[in-house]
Amino acid sequence: MHIHLLAARRLSQRPLPAAFGLVQRRLFSSSSEYDLVVVGGGPGGYVAAIKAAQLGLRTACVEKRGALGGTCLNVGCIPSKALLNMSHKYKEASSDFRKFGIRVDGVSVDIPAMQSYKDKIVGGLTQGIEGLFKRNKVEYIKGAGRLADPHTVEVQPIGGGSTEKLKTKNIILATGSEAAPLVGGALEVDEQQIVSSTGALALSSVPRHLAVVGGGVIGLELGSVWRNLGAEVTVVEFCDKIIPALDVEIGRAFQKLLEKQGIKFMFSTKVVGSQKSGEHGEVTLELENVKSGAASKLNCDVVLVAVGRRPYTRDLGLEEMGIDLDKRGRIVVNDKMQVLKYAHIMAIGDLIEGPMLAHKAEEEGIACVERLAGKGDGTVRHDTIPSVIYTHPELAGVGKTEEQLKAEGVSYKRGAFPFAANSRARATGDSDGLVKVLTCKETDKILGVWILGPNAGELIAEAVLAMEYGAASEDLGRVCHAHPTLSEALKEACMGCFDKPIHIA
Q1: Whether residues 61 and 139 fall in one domain
Q2: What's the predicted TM-score (pTM) here?
Q3: Catalytic residue among 344, 392, 483, 503
């Protein structure tokens, strides 16, 4: 791979792909160094850079972290899934194996070894992306990038030194997001006792009592990790339920399963203050019920602040360039991810409207570069982007919730099937949860699918594919699914929409 050390070196000049068209040639002379510069090397940025290079565009990717993969790979999706998997295995060995007649005595956990394994996985994957950059001839520039003018990205190298200016025809902004602070300043993250998700992924021992401020995806996943390993976990949530965007029926069932695992919830509650006792002692949270105003306190030894994320737009030169942000700090773009003032500057992923999901950013990055190369229209269907919560059991969804359909006045049908009636789930002893399918009453078109149960994150792909092609529940319900498999639960839920399921009365 070309590790760009900001030496004065230019790429050999190659002709533009024919698909670039006359408009691109008018915008910028053919003597510029790059066809595309991507600012940010997370899932959206690095995927866009690789795809652009594959399509023949001279491409550079600027990343200030010093490692590719962004938050997702380095301090988010991947390390959290590694810890979720390891902590679940520990829980199984220490308690769940007994129901299968397997006795494992003296099970213990080695947190430093777990962290080492997690770090090894992350390191291997980041190196893998660098290898992909090398093979696809993507220029990897280690530094902080910002817009200097409409066709120039200015890079400040990680180790200091002189800046370099990269001339380019097109720019994709893909700098992702960062953990949002608690509004009001009641908690100040120190990554020791009061931690962000980054700190929660790197704890060196199991907390006695972990307080999670925020009942969203990040808080529930990381809370589950440390609960599996033996910590007492209390979730403090401002709203009156976990993850308000969930289908209510699925959300309630999910909450009950988490409570069954020992996770406690304090709803309609906000943190108004905190006190520490000693350098490594207790943290006391001062709480207030947002409905009654009643005050209370919660003592713990570690606090995870997981109140969401915000777009990372600092020091990108947006204001100087006249690029608009909305009231939530997101870059305003059109349906092709182009900023409103400059058609050749695009923004993707967490920087723009929509769910903050790695796979959403990837699809947007690919759509942008395919449009540049004349291979596509540059749009992404956001209504078929799935979301997954990787607790155990997992929760996955795509499309509309039942509440959304009611609010929109849509006539719909509901089909549901419990994993307790699925033979594969029963055989593996993992039968909590259900599959729920929502369809248009008149056309039978699938409008939403929600899965709470084992391997939900894998099962949802079939539903996404069906919705991409506008399938009806009968289309899925009449497809032969292998037996015994978990996927039969989706088939039977679909049968509940257009006919009747077989294995429940």
Answers
A1: yes
A2: 0.92
A3: 483
